[in-house]
Write a structure and sequence with these properties.
This protein has 510 residues and is α+β, with helices and mostly antiparallel strands. Helix content is 15%, strand content 33%. The strands form six sheets. It has a seven-stranded antiparallel sheet with strand order 22-21-25-18-19-24-23. The chain starts with 17 loop residues before the first strand and ends with a strand. The structure holds flavin-adenine dinucleotide (FAD) and NADP nicotinamide-adenine-dinucleotide phosphate. One of its GO terms (molecular function) is heme binding.
Protein backbone atom coordinates (compact mmCIF):
# COMPACT_ATOMS: atom_id res chain seq x y z
CA UNK A 1 0.00 0.00 0.00
CA UNK A 2 1.15 3.49 -0.68
CA UNK A 3 1.70 5.49 2.45
CA UNK A 4 2.16 9.20 2.71
CA UNK A 5 4.47 10.11 5.60
CA UNK A 6 2.28 11.45 8.32
CA UNK A 7 4.52 14.00 10.00
CA UNK A 8 3.61 17.70 10.07
CA UNK A 9 -0.07 17.85 9.29
CA UNK A 10 -1.40 20.26 8.24
CA UNK A 11 1.60 21.40 6.20
CA UNK A 12 3.18 24.73 6.96
CA UNK A 13 1.48 27.40 4.90
CA UNK A 14 -1.51 25.24 4.22
CA UNK A 15 -5.01 26.68 4.00
CA UNK A 16 -5.78 24.75 7.12
CA UNK A 17 -5.17 26.88 10.17
CA UNK A 18 -4.42 25.26 13.45
CA UNK A 19 -5.72 27.06 16.50
CA UNK A 20 -4.22 26.48 19.92
CA UNK A 21 -7.23 24.34 20.90
CA UNK A 22 -6.92 22.21 17.80
CA UNK A 23 -7.86 22.36 14.18
CA UNK A 24 -10.04 25.07 12.73
CA UNK A 25 -11.85 25.06 9.47
CA UNK A 26 -11.19 26.97 6.29
CA UNK A 27 -14.05 29.30 5.36
CA UNK A 28 -15.98 27.63 2.59
CA UNK A 29 -17.48 29.45 -0.38
CA UNK A 30 -21.21 30.04 -0.36
CA UNK A 31 -23.14 26.98 -1.47
CA UNK A 32 -20.33 24.65 -0.36
CA UNK A 33 -21.62 23.51 3.03
CA UNK A 34 -21.98 19.89 4.13
CA UNK A 35 -25.71 20.10 3.36
CA UNK A 36 -24.87 21.36 -0.14
CA UNK A 37 -22.50 18.41 -0.58
CA UNK A 38 -25.14 15.95 0.60
CA UNK A 39 -27.66 17.47 -1.78
CA UNK A 40 -25.17 17.20 -4.65
CA UNK A 41 -24.42 13.56 -3.87
CA UNK A 42 -28.12 12.78 -4.02
CA UNK A 43 -28.55 14.45 -7.41
CA UNK A 44 -27.73 11.24 -9.27
CA UNK A 45 -24.59 12.79 -10.84
CA UNK A 46 -21.85 10.33 -11.87
CA UNK A 47 -18.85 11.47 -9.78
CA UNK A 48 -16.41 8.88 -11.06
CA UNK A 49 -17.28 8.50 -14.73
CA UNK A 50 -17.76 4.77 -14.08
CA UNK A 51 -21.59 4.75 -14.34
CA UNK A 52 -21.97 3.03 -10.97
CA UNK A 53 -19.20 0.48 -11.66
CA UNK A 54 -16.16 -0.10 -9.48
CA UNK A 55 -12.63 -0.94 -10.61
CA UNK A 56 -9.47 -2.37 -9.06
CA UNK A 57 -6.88 0.41 -8.90
CA UNK A 58 -3.18 -0.30 -9.25
CA UNK A 59 -0.56 1.89 -7.56
CA UNK A 60 0.52 3.13 -11.00
CA UNK A 61 -3.03 4.17 -11.86
CA UNK A 62 -3.56 5.88 -8.50
CA UNK A 63 -0.37 7.94 -8.93
CA UNK A 64 -1.63 9.35 -12.24
CA UNK A 65 -4.61 11.04 -10.57
CA UNK A 66 -2.76 13.71 -8.63
CA UNK A 67 -4.21 16.99 -9.89
CA UNK A 68 -6.92 19.12 -8.34
CA UNK A 69 -9.36 18.40 -11.15
CA UNK A 70 -8.38 14.73 -11.23
CA UNK A 71 -7.56 13.71 -7.70
CA UNK A 72 -7.82 10.15 -6.40
CA UNK A 73 -7.03 9.26 -2.80
CA UNK A 74 -6.83 5.83 -1.20
CA UNK A 75 -8.32 5.51 2.31
CA UNK A 76 -8.16 2.14 4.06
CA UNK A 77 -7.82 0.23 0.81
CA UNK A 78 -10.57 2.04 -1.11
CA UNK A 79 -9.91 4.69 -3.73
CA UNK A 80 -12.05 7.83 -4.01
CA UNK A 81 -12.16 10.54 -6.66
CA UNK A 82 -12.19 13.56 -4.34
CA UNK A 83 -12.06 16.28 -7.04
CA UNK A 84 -15.83 16.97 -6.84
CA UNK A 85 -15.49 17.21 -3.03
CA UNK A 86 -12.52 19.68 -3.04
CA UNK A 87 -14.54 22.84 -2.53
CA UNK A 88 -16.67 21.22 0.16
CA UNK A 89 -13.81 19.90 2.30
CA UNK A 90 -13.92 21.80 5.60
CA UNK A 91 -10.15 21.40 5.92
CA UNK A 92 -9.52 23.04 2.56
CA UNK A 93 -8.29 21.87 -0.81
CA UNK A 94 -4.56 21.91 0.04
CA UNK A 95 -5.03 19.32 2.74
CA UNK A 96 -6.76 16.95 0.37
CA UNK A 97 -4.07 17.56 -2.26
CA UNK A 98 -1.43 16.31 0.18
CA UNK A 99 -2.70 12.80 -0.44
CA UNK A 100 -3.44 13.26 -4.14
CA UNK A 101 -2.66 10.12 -6.12
CA UNK A 102 -1.54 8.35 -2.95
CA UNK A 103 -2.62 6.49 0.15
CA UNK A 104 -4.00 9.04 2.60
CA UNK A 105 -4.97 6.54 5.30
CA UNK A 106 -2.40 7.70 7.87
CA UNK A 107 -3.18 11.36 7.27
CA UNK A 108 -6.86 10.62 7.54
CA UNK A 109 -6.53 8.53 10.70
CA UNK A 110 -4.49 11.24 12.35
CA UNK A 111 -6.94 14.02 11.61
CA UNK A 112 -10.44 12.62 11.50
CA UNK A 113 -10.64 8.93 12.03
CA UNK A 114 -14.16 9.30 13.38
CA UNK A 115 -15.51 10.90 10.22
CA UNK A 116 -17.90 8.67 8.32
CA UNK A 117 -16.07 9.14 5.06
CA UNK A 118 -17.55 5.95 3.59
CA UNK A 119 -20.95 7.56 3.61
CA UNK A 120 -19.75 11.11 2.79
CA UNK A 121 -17.69 9.99 -0.18
CA UNK A 122 -19.75 7.01 -1.24
CA UNK A 123 -20.61 8.52 -4.63
CA UNK A 124 -16.92 9.23 -5.22
CA UNK A 125 -15.81 5.63 -4.76
CA UNK A 126 -13.72 4.46 -7.69
CA UNK A 127 -12.86 0.99 -6.39
CA UNK A 128 -10.50 -1.08 -4.30
CA UNK A 129 -6.71 -1.00 -4.38
CA UNK A 130 -5.46 -3.96 -6.39
CA UNK A 131 -2.75 -4.51 -3.79
CA UNK A 132 -3.60 -7.24 -1.28
CA UNK A 133 -3.78 -5.97 2.29
CA UNK A 134 -1.56 -7.54 4.91
CA UNK A 135 -3.02 -10.66 6.58
CA UNK A 136 -4.62 -9.66 9.87
CA UNK A 137 -3.26 -11.39 12.94
CA UNK A 138 -5.03 -14.62 13.77
CA UNK A 139 -6.31 -15.18 10.27
CA UNK A 140 -4.95 -17.56 7.72
CA UNK A 141 -3.78 -16.33 4.34
CA UNK A 142 -6.36 -16.35 1.59
CA UNK A 143 -6.47 -19.44 -0.54
CA UNK A 144 -6.76 -17.54 -3.76
CA UNK A 145 -7.82 -14.26 -5.23
CA UNK A 146 -8.91 -14.45 -8.82
CA UNK A 147 -9.66 -11.75 -11.27
CA UNK A 148 -10.49 -12.66 -14.83
CA UNK A 149 -11.89 -9.99 -17.06
CA UNK A 150 -14.71 -10.94 -19.40
CA UNK A 151 -14.47 -9.58 -22.93
CA UNK A 152 -17.59 -7.46 -22.53
CA UNK A 153 -20.14 -6.62 -19.80
CA UNK A 154 -19.31 -5.75 -16.20
CA UNK A 155 -15.81 -6.57 -14.94
CA UNK A 156 -15.46 -9.89 -13.19
CA UNK A 157 -15.90 -10.09 -9.43
CA UNK A 158 -13.23 -11.79 -7.37
CA UNK A 159 -13.37 -13.58 -4.06
CA UNK A 160 -11.34 -14.08 -1.01
CA UNK A 161 -11.76 -15.76 2.37
CA UNK A 162 -10.57 -15.52 5.94
CA UNK A 163 -11.28 -17.34 9.17
CA UNK A 164 -11.48 -16.87 12.88
CA UNK A 165 -11.56 -19.69 15.41
CA UNK A 166 -15.24 -20.35 14.91
CA UNK A 167 -16.15 -18.95 11.50
CA UNK A 168 -15.10 -18.80 7.88
CA UNK A 169 -16.02 -15.72 5.87
CA UNK A 170 -16.11 -15.74 2.09
CA UNK A 171 -15.95 -12.27 0.61
CA UNK A 172 -17.10 -11.53 -2.94
CA UNK A 173 -15.91 -8.23 -4.38
CA UNK A 174 -18.54 -7.51 -7.02
CA UNK A 175 -17.01 -4.23 -8.25
CA UNK A 176 -20.56 -2.87 -8.54
CA UNK A 177 -22.47 -0.53 -6.30
CA UNK A 178 -26.14 -1.08 -5.53
CA UNK A 179 -25.74 -4.75 -4.81
CA UNK A 180 -28.32 -5.92 -2.28
CA UNK A 181 -29.48 -9.10 -0.58
CA UNK A 182 -31.60 -9.96 -3.65
CA UNK A 183 -28.42 -10.17 -5.70
CA UNK A 184 -27.03 -13.19 -3.82
CA UNK A 185 -28.28 -16.76 -3.76
CA UNK A 186 -26.50 -19.19 -1.47
CA UNK A 187 -27.11 -22.92 -1.07
CA UNK A 188 -25.23 -25.11 1.34
CA UNK A 189 -25.80 -28.81 0.80
CA UNK A 190 -23.77 -31.23 2.90
CA UNK A 191 -20.36 -29.63 2.51
CA UNK A 192 -20.80 -28.15 -0.90
CA UNK A 193 -21.30 -24.42 -1.07
CA UNK A 194 -22.87 -22.73 -4.07
CA UNK A 195 -23.04 -18.94 -4.03
CA UNK A 196 -24.28 -16.98 -7.02
CA UNK A 197 -23.99 -13.21 -7.27
CA UNK A 198 -26.12 -11.63 -9.96
CA UNK A 199 -24.41 -8.54 -11.32
CA UNK A 200 -26.34 -6.69 -14.00
CA UNK A 201 -27.11 -9.43 -16.54
CA UNK A 202 -24.15 -11.63 -15.50
CA UNK A 203 -23.78 -14.32 -12.89
CA UNK A 204 -20.69 -14.94 -10.76
CA UNK A 205 -20.48 -18.38 -9.18
CA UNK A 206 -18.55 -19.68 -6.19
CA UNK A 207 -18.91 -23.46 -6.09
CA UNK A 208 -16.75 -25.29 -3.61
CA UNK A 209 -16.56 -28.61 -1.82
CA UNK A 210 -15.64 -27.23 1.60
CA UNK A 211 -12.56 -28.74 3.24
CA UNK A 212 -14.29 -29.04 6.66
CA UNK A 213 -17.80 -29.40 8.02
CA UNK A 214 -19.86 -26.29 8.74
CA UNK A 215 -23.17 -25.70 10.48
CA UNK A 216 -26.38 -25.48 8.50
CA UNK A 217 -27.03 -21.85 9.39
CA UNK A 218 -24.98 -19.10 7.84
CA UNK A 219 -25.42 -15.40 7.35
CA UNK A 220 -25.15 -13.20 4.29
CA UNK A 221 -24.21 -9.54 4.51
CA UNK A 222 -24.00 -6.97 1.77
CA UNK A 223 -21.90 -3.84 2.09
CA UNK A 224 -23.74 -1.93 -0.59
CA UNK A 225 -21.62 1.11 -1.12
CA UNK A 226 -18.46 -0.90 -1.78
CA UNK A 227 -20.21 -3.76 -3.57
CA UNK A 228 -18.96 -6.39 -1.12
CA UNK A 229 -20.84 -9.59 -0.23
CA UNK A 230 -19.87 -11.58 2.87
CA UNK A 231 -21.01 -15.14 3.53
CA UNK A 232 -20.24 -16.10 7.12
CA UNK A 233 -20.13 -19.85 7.75
CA UNK A 234 -19.94 -21.34 11.24
CA UNK A 235 -17.35 -24.10 11.70
CA UNK A 236 -18.46 -27.36 13.25
CA UNK A 237 -15.03 -27.80 14.85
CA UNK A 238 -12.62 -25.09 15.89
CA UNK A 239 -9.76 -26.24 13.71
CA UNK A 240 -7.72 -24.02 11.48
CA UNK A 241 -8.56 -24.51 7.79
CA UNK A 242 -5.54 -24.70 5.49
CA UNK A 243 -7.65 -24.15 2.41
CA UNK A 244 -11.28 -23.34 1.68
CA UNK A 245 -11.88 -26.54 -0.28
CA UNK A 246 -11.93 -28.00 -3.77
CA UNK A 247 -13.43 -26.18 -6.73
CA UNK A 248 -16.60 -27.77 -8.13
CA UNK A 249 -18.28 -27.32 -11.51
CA UNK A 250 -18.15 -23.76 -12.92
CA UNK A 251 -16.48 -22.47 -9.77
CA UNK A 252 -15.24 -18.88 -10.10
CA UNK A 253 -17.00 -18.39 -13.44
CA UNK A 254 -18.58 -15.13 -14.56
CA UNK A 255 -20.96 -15.61 -17.45
CA UNK A 256 -24.08 -13.98 -18.90
CA UNK A 257 -27.10 -14.98 -16.82
CA UNK A 258 -28.86 -16.27 -19.92
CA UNK A 259 -26.11 -18.90 -20.31
CA UNK A 260 -26.48 -20.31 -16.79
CA UNK A 261 -28.77 -23.28 -16.14
CA UNK A 262 -31.50 -23.21 -13.50
CA UNK A 263 -30.49 -24.48 -10.08
CA UNK A 264 -33.23 -25.96 -7.89
CA UNK A 265 -33.58 -26.56 -4.16
CA UNK A 266 -36.31 -28.59 -2.45
CA UNK A 267 -38.88 -26.47 -0.64
CA UNK A 268 -41.54 -27.77 1.69
CA UNK A 269 -45.24 -26.98 1.34
CA UNK A 270 -46.23 -25.28 4.59
CA UNK A 271 -49.78 -24.15 3.86
CA UNK A 272 -52.38 -23.85 1.12
CA UNK A 273 -55.34 -21.50 1.38
CA UNK A 274 -58.29 -20.85 -0.97
CA UNK A 275 -58.31 -17.31 -2.34
CA UNK A 276 -61.01 -17.68 -5.03
CA UNK A 277 -62.94 -20.71 -6.31
CA UNK A 278 -59.90 -21.77 -8.39
CA UNK A 279 -56.92 -19.83 -7.02
CA UNK A 280 -54.91 -20.70 -3.91
CA UNK A 281 -52.19 -19.08 -1.85
CA UNK A 282 -49.33 -21.58 -1.46
CA UNK A 283 -46.64 -21.05 1.16
CA UNK A 284 -43.32 -22.84 0.62
CA UNK A 285 -40.44 -22.94 3.08
CA UNK A 286 -36.87 -22.65 1.81
CA UNK A 287 -34.30 -25.07 3.24
CA UNK A 288 -32.55 -23.58 6.31
CA UNK A 289 -29.28 -23.66 4.38
CA UNK A 290 -30.52 -21.46 1.51
CA UNK A 291 -30.44 -17.71 1.12
CA UNK A 292 -32.79 -16.64 -1.69
CA UNK A 293 -34.87 -13.49 -2.10
CA UNK A 294 -36.84 -12.97 -5.29
CA UNK A 295 -36.51 -9.40 -6.60
CA UNK A 296 -39.65 -7.33 -7.17
CA UNK A 297 -41.65 -8.49 -10.22
CA UNK A 298 -39.44 -11.50 -10.98
CA UNK A 299 -40.51 -15.13 -11.15
CA UNK A 300 -39.08 -18.55 -10.31
CA UNK A 301 -39.67 -21.97 -11.84
CA UNK A 302 -41.42 -24.72 -9.90
CA UNK A 303 -40.55 -28.31 -10.81
CA UNK A 304 -42.55 -31.45 -10.06
CA UNK A 305 -42.40 -34.97 -11.30
CA UNK A 306 -45.67 -35.70 -13.14
CA UNK A 307 -46.12 -39.37 -14.01
CA UNK A 308 -42.38 -39.86 -14.11
CA UNK A 309 -41.60 -36.75 -16.19
CA UNK A 310 -40.16 -33.54 -14.74
CA UNK A 311 -42.51 -30.64 -15.46
CA UNK A 312 -41.41 -27.06 -14.94
CA UNK A 313 -43.64 -23.94 -14.92
CA UNK A 314 -42.95 -20.29 -14.03
CA UNK A 315 -44.68 -18.61 -11.06
CA UNK A 316 -44.34 -15.13 -9.56
CA UNK A 317 -43.90 -14.91 -5.78
CA UNK A 318 -46.17 -12.49 -3.93
CA UNK A 319 -46.23 -11.16 -0.38
CA UNK A 320 -48.30 -13.05 2.18
CA UNK A 321 -51.00 -10.39 1.93
CA UNK A 322 -51.44 -6.88 0.54
CA UNK A 323 -52.11 -5.53 3.99
CA UNK A 324 -49.29 -6.94 6.09
CA UNK A 325 -47.52 -3.80 7.14
CA UNK A 326 -44.78 -3.46 4.59
CA UNK A 327 -41.46 -3.98 6.23
CA UNK A 328 -37.90 -3.13 5.31
CA UNK A 329 -35.97 -6.14 3.97
CA UNK A 330 -34.86 -8.31 6.86
CA UNK A 331 -31.21 -9.01 7.39
CA UNK A 332 -31.54 -12.76 7.56
CA UNK A 333 -32.78 -14.51 4.44
CA UNK A 334 -36.54 -14.76 4.04
CA UNK A 335 -37.56 -18.31 4.80
CA UNK A 336 -41.01 -18.43 3.16
CA UNK A 337 -42.13 -17.86 -0.42
CA UNK A 338 -45.80 -17.26 -1.25
CA UNK A 339 -47.52 -17.93 -4.57
CA UNK A 340 -51.02 -17.19 -5.87
CA UNK A 341 -51.70 -20.02 -8.27
CA UNK A 342 -54.79 -20.74 -10.36
CA UNK A 343 -55.60 -24.42 -10.66
CA UNK A 344 -56.67 -25.47 -14.18
CA UNK A 345 -58.53 -28.80 -13.87
CA UNK A 346 -57.34 -29.84 -17.34
CA UNK A 347 -53.85 -28.39 -16.85
CA UNK A 348 -50.66 -30.42 -16.69
CA UNK A 349 -48.90 -28.91 -13.70
CA UNK A 350 -51.40 -27.15 -11.44
CA UNK A 351 -53.61 -30.19 -10.62
CA UNK A 352 -50.45 -32.03 -9.56
CA UNK A 353 -49.36 -29.09 -7.42
CA UNK A 354 -52.82 -28.95 -5.90
CA UNK A 355 -52.58 -32.64 -4.93
CA UNK A 356 -49.49 -32.04 -2.77
CA UNK A 357 -49.95 -32.57 0.96
CA UNK A 358 -48.63 -30.20 3.62
CA UNK A 359 -45.04 -31.32 4.27
CA UNK A 360 -44.45 -32.46 0.64
CA UNK A 361 -41.63 -30.96 -1.41
CA UNK A 362 -41.45 -28.91 -4.64
CA UNK A 363 -38.26 -27.84 -6.42
CA UNK A 364 -37.82 -24.08 -6.71
CA UNK A 365 -35.34 -22.35 -9.05
CA UNK A 366 -33.53 -19.07 -8.56
CA UNK A 367 -35.19 -15.82 -9.73
CA UNK A 368 -35.55 -14.94 -13.40
CA UNK A 369 -37.05 -12.01 -15.27
CA UNK A 370 -36.10 -8.63 -16.60
CA UNK A 371 -38.12 -6.27 -14.43
CA UNK A 372 -35.85 -3.83 -12.55
CA UNK A 373 -37.10 -1.52 -9.79
CA UNK A 374 -34.71 1.11 -11.16
CA UNK A 375 -37.31 1.61 -13.93
CA UNK A 376 -39.54 3.15 -11.28
CA UNK A 377 -37.06 5.80 -10.22
CA UNK A 378 -38.72 9.20 -9.82
CA UNK A 379 -42.02 7.89 -11.23
CA UNK A 380 -45.00 9.92 -10.04
CA UNK A 381 -47.91 8.05 -11.61
CA UNK A 382 -47.78 4.26 -11.78
CA UNK A 383 -50.45 2.39 -13.77
CA UNK A 384 -50.87 -1.37 -13.41
CA UNK A 385 -52.92 -3.36 -15.94
CA UNK A 386 -53.53 -6.96 -14.88
CA UNK A 387 -55.69 -9.80 -16.20
CA UNK A 388 -56.41 -12.90 -14.10
CA UNK A 389 -53.26 -14.25 -12.41
CA UNK A 390 -51.35 -11.55 -14.33
CA UNK A 391 -52.04 -9.75 -11.05
CA UNK A 392 -49.15 -11.62 -9.34
CA UNK A 393 -46.20 -9.44 -10.46
CA UNK A 394 -48.28 -6.36 -9.55
CA UNK A 395 -48.31 -7.43 -5.90
CA UNK A 396 -44.60 -6.84 -5.25
CA UNK A 397 -44.51 -3.84 -7.62
CA UNK A 398 -47.38 -2.27 -5.63
CA UNK A 399 -45.70 -3.11 -2.34
CA UNK A 400 -42.43 -1.54 -3.54
CA UNK A 401 -44.19 1.54 -4.91
CA UNK A 402 -46.08 2.30 -1.71
CA UNK A 403 -43.11 1.74 0.60
CA UNK A 404 -40.04 2.87 -1.34
CA UNK A 405 -41.03 5.38 -4.02
CA UNK A 406 -40.90 8.79 -2.41
CA UNK A 407 -41.78 10.43 -5.76
CA UNK A 408 -45.06 8.47 -6.05
CA UNK A 409 -48.27 10.51 -6.23
CA UNK A 410 -50.66 7.87 -7.52
CA UNK A 411 -50.77 4.14 -8.25
CA UNK A 412 -53.78 2.79 -10.15
CA UNK A 413 -54.64 -0.82 -10.87
CA UNK A 414 -57.05 -1.82 -13.64
CA UNK A 415 -57.89 -5.47 -13.00
CA UNK A 416 -59.51 -7.52 -15.82
CA UNK A 417 -61.35 -10.71 -14.93
CA UNK A 418 -64.19 -12.85 -16.25
CA UNK A 419 -66.51 -12.57 -13.23
CA UNK A 420 -66.57 -11.02 -9.76
CA UNK A 421 -65.75 -14.43 -8.29
CA UNK A 422 -62.46 -14.45 -10.18
CA UNK A 423 -61.12 -11.26 -8.58
CA UNK A 424 -58.09 -12.19 -6.49
CA UNK A 425 -57.77 -10.44 -3.10
CA UNK A 426 -60.68 -8.08 -3.85
CA UNK A 427 -61.31 -7.38 -0.20
CA UNK A 428 -57.65 -6.64 0.46
CA UNK A 429 -57.43 -4.36 -2.61
CA UNK A 430 -60.35 -2.34 -1.34
CA UNK A 431 -58.96 -2.11 2.18
CA UNK A 432 -55.64 -0.99 0.77
CA UNK A 433 -57.36 1.72 -1.29
CA UNK A 434 -59.02 2.97 1.91
CA UNK A 435 -55.80 2.81 3.88
CA UNK A 436 -53.55 4.52 1.31
CA UNK A 437 -55.11 7.37 -0.63
CA UNK A 438 -52.46 7.10 -3.36
CA UNK A 439 -53.87 3.72 -4.41
CA UNK A 440 -56.95 3.23 -6.62
CA UNK A 441 -58.41 0.04 -8.07
CA UNK A 442 -60.90 -0.50 -10.90
CA UNK A 443 -62.31 -3.81 -12.12
CA UNK A 444 -63.31 -4.71 -15.65
CA UNK A 445 -65.29 -7.93 -16.20
CA UNK A 446 -65.60 -9.80 -19.49
CA UNK A 447 -68.45 -12.12 -18.40
CA UNK A 448 -70.23 -10.26 -15.58
CA UNK A 449 -73.48 -11.26 -13.92
CA UNK A 450 -76.51 -9.07 -14.73
CA UNK A 451 -76.13 -7.36 -11.33
CA UNK A 452 -72.67 -6.00 -12.15
CA UNK A 453 -72.79 -2.24 -12.69
CA UNK A 454 -69.05 -1.65 -13.06
CA UNK A 455 -66.91 -1.61 -16.19
CA UNK A 456 -67.28 -4.43 -18.73
CA UNK A 457 -65.48 -5.82 -21.75
CA UNK A 458 -61.90 -6.34 -22.80
CA UNK A 459 -58.89 -4.04 -22.77
CA UNK A 460 -59.68 -1.20 -25.19
CA UNK A 461 -58.54 2.27 -26.18
CA UNK A 462 -61.63 3.85 -24.61
CA UNK A 463 -61.09 2.10 -21.25
CA UNK A 464 -57.39 2.94 -21.18
CA UNK A 465 -57.60 6.59 -22.19
CA UNK A 466 -60.13 7.24 -19.43
CA UNK A 467 -58.06 5.31 -16.87
CA UNK A 468 -54.59 6.66 -17.68
CA UNK A 469 -55.06 10.19 -16.37
CA UNK A 470 -51.87 11.76 -15.04
CA UNK A 471 -51.96 13.51 -11.67
CA UNK A 472 -50.06 16.44 -13.19
CA UNK A 473 -49.80 17.47 -16.82
CA UNK A 474 -46.18 16.40 -17.21
CA UNK A 475 -45.86 13.86 -14.42
CA UNK A 476 -43.43 11.00 -14.91
CA UNK A 477 -45.43 7.85 -15.61
CA UNK A 478 -44.73 4.14 -15.77
CA UNK A 479 -47.05 1.32 -16.83
CA UNK A 480 -46.89 -2.39 -16.07
CA UNK A 481 -49.03 -4.93 -17.89
CA UNK A 482 -49.50 -8.67 -17.36
CA UNK A 483 -52.00 -11.36 -18.26
CA UNK A 484 -52.72 -13.87 -21.03
CA UNK A 485 -50.22 -13.17 -23.86
CA UNK A 486 -52.85 -11.81 -26.31
CA UNK A 487 -54.11 -9.45 -23.57
CA UNK A 488 -50.59 -8.17 -22.88
CA UNK A 489 -49.79 -7.77 -26.60
CA UNK A 490 -53.04 -5.91 -27.27
CA UNK A 491 -52.54 -3.72 -24.20
CA UNK A 492 -49.02 -2.72 -25.26
CA UNK A 493 -50.25 -1.94 -28.79
CA UNK A 494 -52.96 0.34 -27.35
CA UNK A 495 -50.48 2.05 -25.02
CA UNK A 496 -48.22 2.84 -27.99
CA UNK A 497 -51.30 4.17 -29.76
CA UNK A 498 -51.90 6.43 -26.78
CA UNK A 499 -48.35 7.79 -27.17
CA UNK A 500 -46.64 6.02 -24.29
CA UNK A 501 -43.07 5.10 -25.15
CA UNK A 502 -41.31 1.74 -24.68
CA UNK A 503 -39.32 3.28 -21.81
CA UNK A 504 -42.58 3.92 -19.98
CA UNK A 505 -44.00 0.39 -20.37
CA UNK A 506 -43.06 -2.97 -18.90
CA UNK A 507 -44.90 -6.01 -20.27
CA UNK A 508 -44.44 -9.11 -18.08
CA UNK A 509 -43.90 -12.14 -20.26
CA UNK A 510 -42.16 -15.51 -19.96
P1 LIG B 1 -51.55 -26.07 -18.84
O1 LIG B 1 -51.35 -27.51 -19.09
O2 LIG B 1 -50.56 -25.14 -19.39
O3 LIG B 1 -53.00 -25.65 -19.32
C1 LIG B 1 -53.54 -24.37 -19.00
C2 LIG B 1 -54.95 -24.27 -19.58
O4 LIG B 1 -54.89 -24.32 -20.97
C3 LIG B 1 -55.88 -25.40 -19.13
O5 LIG B 1 -57.17 -24.90 -18.97
C4 LIG B 1 -55.81 -26.34 -20.25
O6 LIG B 1 -56.98 -27.13 -20.36
C5 LIG B 1 -55.66 -25.42 -21.44
N1 LIG B 1 -54.92 -26.04 -22.52
C6 LIG B 1 -53.73 -26.63 -22.44
N2 LIG B 1 -53.36 -27.07 -23.65
C7 LIG B 1 -54.37 -26.73 -24.50
C8 LIG B 1 -54.60 -26.90 -25.89
N3 LIG B 1 -53.70 -27.50 -26.66
N4 LIG B 1 -55.73 -26.39 -26.42
C9 LIG B 1 -56.63 -25.77 -25.66
N5 LIG B 1 -56.47 -25.59 -24.34
C10 LIG B 1 -55.37 -26.06 -23.77
N6 LIG B 1 -49.82 -18.64 -12.98
C11 LIG B 1 -50.33 -18.50 -11.74
O7 LIG B 1 -51.38 -19.05 -11.41
N7 LIG B 1 -49.65 -17.72 -10.83
C12 LIG B 1 -48.47 -17.11 -11.13
O8 LIG B 1 -47.88 -16.43 -10.27
C13 LIG B 1 -47.95 -17.26 -12.45
N8 LIG B 1 -46.78 -16.66 -12.80
C14 LIG B 1 -46.33 -16.81 -14.08
C15 LIG B 1 -45.16 -16.16 -14.47
C16 LIG B 1 -44.72 -16.25 -15.76
C17 LIG B 1 -43.45 -15.54 -16.17
C18 LIG B 1 -45.46 -16.97 -16.71
C19 LIG B 1 -45.02 -17.04 -18.12
C20 LIG B 1 -46.60 -17.65 -16.34
C21 LIG B 1 -47.04 -17.58 -15.02
N9 LIG B 1 -48.18 -18.27 -14.61
C22 LIG B 1 -48.68 -18.08 -13.35
C23 LIG B 1 -48.81 -19.30 -15.47
C24 LIG B 1 -48.19 -20.70 -15.18
O9 LIG B 1 -46.84 -20.69 -15.55
C25 LIG B 1 -48.86 -21.84 -15.95
O10 LIG B 1 -48.90 -21.52 -17.31
C26 LIG B 1 -50.25 -22.12 -15.42
O11 LIG B 1 -50.18 -22.45 -14.05
C27 LIG B 1 -50.89 -23.30 -16.16
O12 LIG B 1 -50.13 -24.45 -15.98
P2 LIG B 1 -50.71 -25.92 -16.14
O13 LIG B 1 -49.57 -26.81 -16.52
O14 LIG B 1 -51.50 -26.32 -14.95
O15 LIG B 1 -51.75 -25.78 -17.31
P1 LIG C 1 -58.36 -15.46 -17.49
O1 LIG C 1 -59.12 -15.57 -16.25
O2 LIG C 1 -58.58 -16.48 -18.54
O3 LIG C 1 -58.52 -14.02 -18.17
C1 LIG C 1 -58.48 -12.83 -17.43
C2 LIG C 1 -59.12 -11.71 -18.26
O4 LIG C 1 -58.35 -11.50 -19.43
C3 LIG C 1 -60.51 -12.10 -18.71
O5 LIG C 1 -61.34 -10.98 -18.63
C4 LIG C 1 -60.31 -12.50 -20.12
O6 LIG C 1 -61.44 -12.35 -20.94
C5 LIG C 1 -59.23 -11.53 -20.54
N1 LIG C 1 -58.59 -11.97 -21.77
C6 LIG C 1 -58.22 -13.20 -22.10
N2 LIG C 1 -57.69 -13.22 -23.32
C7 LIG C 1 -57.77 -11.97 -23.80
C8 LIG C 1 -57.42 -11.36 -25.00
N3 LIG C 1 -56.94 -12.03 -26.01
N4 LIG C 1 -57.63 -10.04 -25.14
C9 LIG C 1 -58.19 -9.34 -24.14
N5 LIG C 1 -58.57 -9.88 -23.00
C10 LIG C 1 -58.36 -11.17 -22.80
O7 LIG C 1 -56.79 -15.40 -17.14
P2 LIG C 1 -55.95 -16.46 -16.31
O8 LIG C 1 -56.46 -17.84 -16.59
O9 LIG C 1 -55.84 -16.02 -14.90
O10 LIG C 1 -54.55 -16.36 -17.01
C11 LIG C 1 -53.61 -15.42 -16.64
C12 LIG C 1 -52.47 -15.41 -17.64
O11 LIG C 1 -51.46 -14.56 -17.13
C13 LIG C 1 -51.85 -16.77 -17.93
O12 LIG C 1 -51.72 -16.88 -19.32
C14 LIG C 1 -50.47 -16.67 -17.29
O13 LIG C 1 -49.51 -17.38 -18.01
C15 LIG C 1 -50.20 -15.17 -17.37
N6 LIG C 1 -49.25 -14.72 -16.32
C16 LIG C 1 -48.07 -14.24 -16.75
C17 LIG C 1 -47.14 -13.80 -15.82
C18 LIG C 1 -45.83 -13.25 -16.31
O14 LIG C 1 -45.56 -13.26 -17.47
N7 LIG C 1 -44.95 -12.73 -15.45
C19 LIG C 1 -47.44 -13.85 -14.46
C20 LIG C 1 -48.68 -14.36 -14.07
C21 LIG C 1 -49.59 -14.79 -15.00
P3 LIG C 1 -62.29 -13.61 -21.49
O15 LIG C 1 -63.45 -13.82 -20.58
O16 LIG C 1 -62.77 -13.19 -22.85
O17 LIG C 1 -61.39 -14.80 -21.57
Amino acid sequence: MLNVPSQAFPAPGSQQRVASQGRSKVPLKQGRSLMDWIRLTKSGKDFTGLKGGLIEVTEEELKKHNKKDDCWICIRGFVYNVSPYMEYHPGGEDELMRAAGADGTDLFNEVHRWVNYESMLKECLVGRMAVKPAVPKGMLPKSQVTDTLPREGPSSPSYDWFQTESSVTIVIYTKQKNINLDSVIVDLQDDSLRAEAVIKDHSYLIHIGLSHEVQENFSVRVIENVGKIEIVLQKKETVSWKCLGDPLEKHDSFIPKKDTGLYYRQCQLISKEDVTHDTRLFCLMLPPSTHLQVPVGQHVYLKLSVTGAEIVKPYTPVSESLLSDFKEPVLSPNKYIYFLIKIYPAGLFTPELDRLQIGDFVSVSGPEGNFKVSKLQEVEDLFLLAAGTGFTPMVTVLNHALTHMSSLRKVKLMFFNKTEDDIIWRCQLEKLALKDKRFHVEYVLSAPSPEWNGKQGHVSRALLSEFLQRSLENSKVFLCICGPTPFTDEGIRLLHDLNFSDDEIHGFTA
